[in-house]
């Protein structure tokens, strides 16, 4: 069995992590800075080499893109499924602050809520709830 973890390369990993922690009720598990490495350039010493966090019950990892240019793409979205509608609405509202709503969170024909947004860091999200099963 494999484990998939989203790893964000960021212009400001700490600010991005703090945003997700507030939006998704999370916590930082660990932080390593470039300054922890030997022979790090002075201007990179306070930048984030690796940050691990947990939010909405999911592990995420982030780092500052110190030595590379960031390019945001549209080929992948992060999808978060919540058991309850209140949780989904709260996450959607908080993640969309400063970002762009692509599709409002609303009921869909398959029996769940679904919405899409791009957060203020340029990350695309799909927020959904577990589909309600019909009882025959």
UniProtKB/TrEMBL annotation:
It comes from the Bacteria. Coiled coil: none annotated. Residues 6-128 form the PhnB-like domain. SUPFAM superfamilies: Glyoxalase/Bleomycin resistance protein/Dihydroxybiphenyl dioxygenase. InterPro entries: Glyas_Bleomycin-R_OHBP_Dase (IPR029068), PhnB-like (IPR028973). It holds the Pfam family 3-dmu-9_3-mt. PANTHER family: PROTEIN YJDN, PROTEIN YJDN-RELATED. This is PhnB-like domain-containing protein.
């Amino acid at each position: 069995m494999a484990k998939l973890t989203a790893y964000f390369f960021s212009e400001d990993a700490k600010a991005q992590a703090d945003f997700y922690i507030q939006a998704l009720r999370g916590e930082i598990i660990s932080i390593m800075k470039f300054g922890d490495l030997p022979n790090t350039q002075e201007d990179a010493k306070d930048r984030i080499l690796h940050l691990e966090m947990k939010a909405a019950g999911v592990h995420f990892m982030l780092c500052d893109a110190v030595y590379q240019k960031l390019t945001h793409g549209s080929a992948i979205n992060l999808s978060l499924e919540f058991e309850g509608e209140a949780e989904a609405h709260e996450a959607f509202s908080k993640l969309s602050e400063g970002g762009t709503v692509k599709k409002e969170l609303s009921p869909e024909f398959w029996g769940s809520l679904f919405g899409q947004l791009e957060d203020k860091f340029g990350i695309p999200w799909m927020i959904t709830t577990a589909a309600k099963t019909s009882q025959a």
